[in-house]
Amino acid sequence: MSGGNIVARRPFPAAAREELGDAQLRANLRKATHTIRDKRLRVVGEVPDWEALRQSGAAIKDDVLSRLPELLEEFEATATAAGATVHWARDAAEACAVVTQLVRDTGATEVVKVKSMATQEIGLNEALEAAGIDAVETDLAELIVQLADDTPSHILVPAIHYNRSQIREIFTRNGLSALTDDPPALAEAARRHLRAKFLSARVGISGANFAVAESGALVVVESEGNGRMCLTLPETLISVVGIEKILPTFRDLEVFLQLLPRSSTGERMNPYTSLWTGVTPGDGPQTVHIVLVDNGRTETLADDVGRQALRCIRCSACLNVCPVYERVGGHAYGSVYPGPIGAILSPQMSGEGANRTLPYASTLCGACYDACPVQINIPEVLVHLRQTGPHPVAERAAMRALSWAMRDRRRYTAALRAARRGAAPVRWVAGRRGTVRHLPWPLSRWTSTRDAPLPAKQTFREWWATERGQA
Amino acid sequence: MSARDEVLRRVRAARPAVPVAVPREYLAVDGAEDLVALLVDRLLDYKATVRRCNPDELAGTVAELLSGASTVVAPSGAPEGWLSGYQGRVLRDGEPQQLAVADLDAPGVAVLTGCAVAVARTGTLILDAGPDQGRRALSLVPDHHVCVVHSGQVAGGVPEALARLADPTQPLTLISGPSATSDIELNRVEGVHGPRRLDVVVVVG
Amino acid sequence: MKVALFVTCVNDLVFPGTGRAVVQVLERLGHTVEFPVEQGCCGQMHANSGYREEALPLVANFVKTFDGYDAVVGPSGSCVAMVRDWYPKLVPDATEVVARTYELSELLVDVLGVTDVGATFPHRVTYHPTCHGLRLLHLGDRPRRLLESVRDLELLDLPGAEECCGFGGTFSVKNAGVSGAMLADKCRSIVDTGAEYVAAVDNSCLAHIGGGLSRTSGPAKAIHYAEILAATS
């Protein structure tokens, strides 16, 4: 029922192992995630009503999910009345087909793109390329990734895995000259490269951060102005929007325009936010299309616990605070949605491939839940998704045996005694240190990175029985 | 079944049936006392240039800020008085026709606009395509944007500012500092595709 | 006050000294400690690993075993968090026992109103706030306040204290590489403080941290903070 770039091809542990081996990547990620963490904490800390905003943000999104059919129909009606044409797509393939046809109808062979998770999700660039249409990514980071023939590794900062000197090298390889590897020089090189494309583009393609049902307005939140270029200068604008992006009213933006910038880039407000409602004569694109996409969202919506993932506003605060993401980066998650939110969103939107390993890619430390501006309880959903496995046969047998033993006093006491006795010879080997350096499989997975403790010589309940004459 | 009907059918089947009450306990009104000072502080933090002046000084201040520009683009509704001190060439958009993008992109072109409302707490200027602001391309393509804000237009927080907009279905642009990117090692760099220089004139009184 | 000790399965088998320490501290303060022998595991490992069905009998056993006590104390942030966070969702009639189940520092500071438990521990100690203690139980500075009141103890700040150590239950074996990378960073921070001990509220995290520390050349060892609070010389 869904598809596109949301299906991991390799199990997370295997992909993560590979990324972990890249010391440069880890250094880049550590620097970047810590920088943005600190910025976010600073600007969130200065908002006295932050918790109230989070509560409202979560509730508005939940309200949207409960009224989604009506709100979608309302949005379709208002956007249409304002001069836009609304299209619907069940899945990634259908969305790509709709957009490709719309571009073909204009006769254009090149389109300029605003950074958009929805178009990455559906694999639009690949589809357009197959149809002979060049899709030019205009966000600096997306441009870097596109020029490197790579995939994004972060929702908000797709080139977070590259440092400045690596970026300069990518630019040079592609004929963009930057005088130094200073970020301003690199930004200037990108500006020169893209300027001509903006000024001549006939078709712009965007996503939307929000879609307002009562008016038919779309909202794009950005920094560089590349978004404004794509949304303003072309004759035709095509926006690909996930069905959960709806907000009931314009007023609801007063909540999200406070939550989103501070959570994502750690700024009080992002440099540019654009709102447009259909077609405005004499101002901006005169042909406006909106493609509403399902692609697995309704499957997610059907799950009582998991549907909260659809509140996500793609701020990526959860990525930046996640200790697992910080070590492995976005590619290990195998989906355009990486990090904690990806670990609950990707497997719900598509149960294919290795997505079922993603809910285990977390220590359940809870930093993501604390940071989430719409209070998505990511650990809760991770644990919920683990219910459906995969459960290795040996693990399931062990869990069942433990549960059976530990629910009954006699069996439990006997099991503890057996474990203590079984450890006796190992303790002899362990010697004075009291810990074990190498254990046979499967426990070797523990001792691969740390020593293992041993059962004590006397369990607590044995001590208690001796001391207090019970048990 | 059409894609539309199929998606709507799925949504109807999947959505939770319980109504949700939306609390709005957040601040409707920002408590800041000196809104102009707060706005100036926030704009400076974004690396915008800020000038405070009284109404009599406006033309002189604008002229000074535009001294490096050979041509100034202005929306048709921008008051004559704003530009009375400026010596260079003035192009009015839409008089009689819209300026070409190439005109806006030419070297030495600056743009002068007003705004609909400003948000002190976040250092944001909101343009709603009003007569003194014009269409969106004007404040986008030229590399230098001078924006006039009257102190009466300054709202405290985001909720107050959005509520002041007369018609939110007009094209809206929220501007918070010059264009910027944080894409390289998450360091903020001012100046990418939008105007690299943003000057704000806050008219008090 | 009659306090029931919920020792936790890991402590019962591997770290009985922590259970003994809790008994010592509470008895020193004049309270009666009981150890209901019917107790087993709280079910956290099962619930968090996706075995809710297998967790349910353990949860039921906990609720039955600890029914009727003034207070239940567990020297484990994650096990107490399991009770407080999960039990209401799993067994709706558990609210009473859930409300009276405390992590040790909550019992001492909030219920008994004590921060000085009469301990002496002449060592340099740093404190790692475990994730479930920090973000699920919101223990805040309670454990630190208890440690600060220990005589002759020098409490050292741990940089990046609130970052996860990488344990995460079955995560530590399912994603051993990532877990190890997180552990290495945590161990480096601990060693850099120059502390002799890293204290925490959870022996499962400490087993992981201690297992990493014993592979470093530094002197730092892992210790449950209850054992520090029990120490008198």
From TrEMBL, chain A:
Residue span(s) of domain Lactate utilization protein B C-terminal: 387-467
Residues annotated as domain LUD: 72-293
Single GO biological process annotation from the record: lactate metabolic process
Domain of life: Bacteria
Record keywords, A-Z: 4Fe-4S, Electron transport, Iron, Iron-sulfur, Metal-binding, Repeat, Transport
Domain 4Fe-4S ferredoxin-type: 309-376
GO terms for MF: 4 iron, 4 sulfur cluster binding; metal ion binding
SUPFAM superfamilies: 4Fe-4S ferredoxins (SSF54862), NagB/RpiA/CoA transferase-like (SSF100950)
Pfam families recorded: Fer4_8, LUD_dom, LutB_C
Acetylation keyword on record: no
Presence of the UniProt keyword Glycosyltransferase in the record: no
InterPro entries in the cross-refs: 4Fe4S_Fe-S-bd, 4Fe4S_Fe_S_CS, FTHF_cligase-like_sf, Helical_ferredxn, LUD_dom, LutB/LldF, LutB_C, NagB/RpiA_transferase-like
Protein name according to UniProt: Iron-sulfur cluster-binding protein
Organism annotation: Phytohabitans flavus
Phylogenetic placement of the source organism: Bacteria, Bacillati, Actinomycetota, Actinomycetes, Micromonosporales
TrEMBL record, chain B:
Signal sequence bounds: none
Domain of life: Bacteria
Domain LUD: 111-203
Pfam families linked: LUD_dom
SUPFAM superfamilies: NagB/RpiA/CoA transferase-like
UniProt-listed InterPro entries: FTHF_cligase-like_sf, LUD_dom, NagB/RpiA_transferase-like
Annotated PANTHER family: LACTATE UTILIZATION PROTEIN C
Protein name: LUD domain-containing protein
Source organism of this protein record: Phytohabitans flavus
From TrEMBL, chain C:
UniProt GO cellular component terms: cytosol
One matching Pfam family: CCG
GO function term, MF aspect, one: oxidoreductase activity
Record-annotated Cysteine-rich domain positions: 3-83, 125-209
Any coiled-coil regions, as ranges: none
Listed InterPro entries: Cys_rich_dom
Protein name: Fe-S oxidoreductase
